[in-house]
Design goal:
It contains eight helices and 97 strands. Helix 3 (about 1135-1160) runs antiparallel to helix 8. The longest helix has 26 residues, at about 1135-1160. It is extended, with a radius of gyration of 64 Å.
Amino acid sequence: MPATSLQQVGSRGRCAALLLPLLPLLLLSVAPKPGDTMINIPSKYKIRHLKSPPVITAQPVSITTFSADDITLTCEATGNPPPMFRWVKDGLEFDPSKDPDLSVSRDSGTFSLTAKDGPIHQYQGRYNCYASNELGTAVSKEARIITENTPTLQKEKKVSKKVEEGESVVLPCNPPNSTVAPVIHWMDKRLRHIQQNERVIQGRDGNLYFSHVTPADSRDDYTCNTQFLSAFIIQLKEPIKLTVVPSNSVVRNRRPQMMQPTGSRSSYLVLSGQDLELECIVQGLPAPSIQWIRKDGVLSESRTSTDSYNRVLRFKNISESDGGEYQCTATNLQGMISHSYSITVEAAPYWTKEPKSQLYAPGETVKLECKADGIPSPEVTWSINGNLLTDIDPDPRRSLKHGVLTLKNVELSDTAVYQCKAANKHGSILINAYVYVIELPPQILTEDVLMYSVAEGQTIDLACETFGSPRPNVTWEGESWGALIANPRMSQLSDGSLKISNASHNDSGQYTCTVSNSKITITAELAVLNKTVIVKPPLALRIQRGRPANLTCEYQVDSRQGTPQVQWRKNQKKLTESSDSDKYKIDESTLIILEVEEDDEGIYTCEVITTLDMAVASGSITIVDRPDSPTQIQMTEPKERSVTLSWTPGDDHNSPVIEYLIEFEETGSERKEWEELSRVSGSIQRTTLPLKPFISYRFRIIAINDIGKSDPSKETEAYSTPAAPPDSNPEGVRSDSIDPGTLVITWKELDRRSFNGPDFRYKVMWRKVLGSGPSWHTKDATSPPFIVTDVGNFSAFEIKVQAVNEMGEGPEPKTNIGYSAEETPLEAPLDVGVVLINSTAIKVTWAAVNRETVRGRLQGYKIYLKHFDPESRHLRRERVREGRPTNISVVTTDSNEEKKILGDLQPYSHYSLTVSAFNYKGEGPESEALTFHTPEGVPGPPSFLLLESPSETEMILRWSAPNQPNGVLKGYILQYQQVDNEDSPMLVEKISDHSQNHFKLKLDPRSRYRFHLRGYTAAGEGLPIISEGATTLDGGPPSNISLSIGETSINLTWVSKERQRNVGFHIQYLRDGKGEWKYSEKVNSSQSFYTLQGLQPGSLYYLRIYLGNKTIWMDEIQTAGTKMEKQDGFVTESWFIGLISALVLLLLILLILCFIKRSKGGKYSVKEKEESQIDSEARPMNNEAFGEYSDNEEKRTASQPSLCEDSKLCTDDALDDYANSNSVQTEVLMDDSLASQSSGVRDVPDPETQESSPLNPATAISHHGLPNSAALLD
């Protein structure tokens, strides 16, 4: 983790001022380590036109070529100056530029030959490329050109083979000889591949091997196809005919025999890194199965694979460890055969240590280490600039030992490119390494004025990276500390950096790094920040499975640092929210486990990571649970009233057992429940239990820890205790007498478990306290109560109850005093008097009653106080007694009291008072009623107080009289004061008229007031009613309006001002600035919201509020949507509208006349209808039968020209259709849109359901039809 932070600051002026008081540090040199003398020029080092030795960047590659192929040998190199190139072929100089068939690249040594028909064998050979400049010569690896003639197919004879069924056969391929292995395919004349299987396999030599033949193998088109990929040639061999002679008898099985390779053993020499395939092709019937093994070890499944139906074992990228003995074994039903393979793995040379190209300063020692390995071991030779070291004059500064070339005290002239070559029989390798001896001026590569940050207690390195040749030395100085040697926490590193360990706040400040013997310096600023601290680490949680767990990690970080990263780990493994679905949630610095499981147990570590430091704290989660049940419960040492119980604890689940709960169940009892008998400490596993007689027990044990209770253990066998006399008598023996002349003795029954034996009962004993002597009356009872009769009223008795069973009596019982039943008192208290204390309190006195008349135990007295309405104050006492009280209150006193003070009475009211005595039985008679009235008091507050403000300076107060005047109300006192001015005086107005209910005040409109209003009587002023308010200011329409614009409406919103009077106004709007202003409905200023509707989409509107010849507010808006353009045409012309209106009016008149005629019988008279229905003999009756229709009516009807006779609208069917339809369709031709608008006639009820009168509006067409049409046409 990074422990420091740095950044560059922009100014050096501030730092330069701090350099004056710097104390010199101990000068330390950045000396190179022994043997570490090479120079790497950093990318930040600034130097122009630096020369560099040649370095080959693209090596030539060996190729095998045919005459139809292009030939290219690549050789590219870098260097400054750019290198020159030359070639050596087979040890002799070769200049490709002199060969007219070769083309040479201008910027490199690459040359190429374009494919031609002529011979190319003259280019076969071994080539090396040399790249040279003034600093040395680099040599390429050796590349070989192998030339091949284009493979040709020799004339062959047709081959025919004839074999018996079951025999083996080999079909030869014999591909052309070439150093390039061809790709071989066996196909038929239709160019379909011959199917291969365990019986038919193609060998690595190209032949097709048949383990045994079948008649299905007979065919005449087995063709071997050879493909030379690099020569782009495919050759088809002559087809081979194979004839399989079927056997006349059963084909005999044959044991396996090797077909390829032959014999029992073969050897292979292979180079490390190459691929190797071992064949095992066998004959036999049935086809043998193949198994591969390594004889001198275990066959590696990862480094080997099988192919061709297990007939081939393939090694890919073989290594020396793969050398050894291998064996294939072929097996069938007739036997087996095996073949051994000896693999020898050798290696061409390869590098184990390569020399590195480096820069060196004059006088340094250079060591070029070059080591290679191979099988057999290669010979290593050195060259300088392509010349063998043995051919160069010896130099005492140069030595070669164990493959390491050492150059001591190098000079500028030692700059060269050195070649190391390793060779054995399998080939050679070559590597270049240049030695560049150079002098470079010193530079400080670290940026100037860097700002470093480090947390307190951490370590930081202040960088001062330098470069030069020779390597420069640097020194450090600081402004706030002494010599470096005196501060053990500071040290200078070999790279020039200053290391400060265990940083403290005193280390903050400016530091300077200087190159020795120069004026090159840089400064650095160090800020030491507070270290990150975890103030509330995660706790050690003990939690139950399935519960949530929260691990909190609160921390403090220096404010100059950013937000830290909080990383949680469980047992050192990182946790993330997505690592286990929704198991973990991280909320800031809290780890939340929603449901704790068994695998959540462990150590949880919180890491607070900043850019400078890290704080770590750990907590834990321990899974706890209820304990397991105790086991092996045993009862020992049984006694009459005890038994010893022992047990074995169960698993406590990481929470120690606090105590054991021992429960019992009583067998044979109706109470089928377990009850607690005893509790013992969790450290105890054996206890003696106290038992009661005559009970059969079963026991069980429950373990309890901090988490909860265990499941109960298995219960024990039943254990019964013997019977014994009762140990105790019943408690609570008393008399509870109610009926006169009776003594009721009752007690609290004993629990059944206290019976201690069979035949349990109670022995009840009683006798009078006086006059009865020592003899006791005794009776047995099974349960309370026990009643004794004829004992007189309220007589004292000694009573006691004893427990008894078959085994004997219980202990001697305790004697109690009881009484027989009481009667209500006979007399009322005498000498009742009332003393008035004030208007709301009185003192009541009376004389105690004679105790003998109480006929029981006197409990006390009851005072009955009756309140009457205030208006009964002036009534006579007799009338008060007759009236109904509005309230009755009862006050109870103790038996020894003879006076009582009563409060909370109503002033100016009339009361009646009586007193009675009472005992347990009830109350005695009341005393004679005593009447009195309370004096006048102060009134209560007025019922309500309302504030009205008719103007900015006026306030009207309205109220009603108090609900409780408590006397004769004389008037009111009004006090008021400004709320927002503490120094304002309290103003007082006295209102002497008690009937007045309002009052007007002149007030300051800028202030708010508090009003106190109270009534007063002769007794004084009453309680006030209080209210606050201020006058209402003159209001006006809003001016600060917000708009929300739609297509056909605008929402206007505003904020109503406080204390302003509501004002009504209209919103005016004008479309496109044309026409007249339109008005909205009246809007109140207190609404705060209004929607202006009915606007046109995509239109410009001007809005304003105009009041009192003054524009209060104005705005301009554009509605949303697309503007509807007005369609010009004859439909909107006035003459057309008039024509259509006339036609519609004529149609309405026609329909009205038709309805009038239909109401009189249609176009036929009633008489005609009737005459058509009677026979000819009845005709002389003429009109007598239908007197209500006269001839005049007939004539009048007939004489009127019918407007409907020639119209379909007046037929019965037409009228019926009209009456039952929702619209009338006219035959007037008009524009479609106009016709659709003019057909909106309202529904007309059925005329048959209406009165037959032409004046009935139900049968007339709606008068709304025409105006609607006209409105649409406008």
